[in-house]
């Protein structure tokens, strides 16, 4: 089967995806622990350097020692360059969104960062459906975007039934206005940050709550951010994982921010 997708720019940096990785090892770690067989995790479109696949293997093995990470890339030259790093719990394969695993194996987790960002918005929904159809029972697909050094990141979490949540993660030091993360929204949302769209309403509410919690700045940016997230929740925004707020991480139900109010 011909790989599904197109070769992307492939740029990456060490530790760039740490924010998503710690979320996968934290709130989503139960998916690895619940797998009856050694879970397979796919780093889809890892790029010109396989460093993110190596990091993902190391971080998730702290959750479950028998996890196997497969770096999948559509560019055969990148697969060949990564091959020398293959070893216990890590291998590489050529492929795309069809997720080519031997014997029809299904992954427990699929992480694709800064991949769909380089596609057209119209490509997102069918690609999501294709990847989600390949997931193991209880599996998760993460479609995300981050800046060059991983200080700002956002990702959509999808189960077999479709998208379930949006997570935004900031480096709190130096944060001036939360909505600055808008330029790193996933492809499904980045063109939707306009008046009348739910994601615009959410980011506006986030900035408003941040401004109202300015008094907490005397106690540090972390305290201000936690107060901001709590205020959003009190206003009725369906936030999740309040224990993660102190990390500069905010997760909200997908239905609250989906294009047009639902997808």
From TrEMBL:
Gene3D superfamilies listed in its UniProt record: Vaccinia Virus protein VP39 (3.40.50.150)
SUPFAM superfamilies, alphabetized: S-adenosyl-L-methionine-dependent methyltransferases (SSF53335)
InterPro entries named in the record: SAM-dependent_MTases_sf
Name used for this protein in its record: SAM-dependent methyltransferase
Origin: domain of life: Bacteria
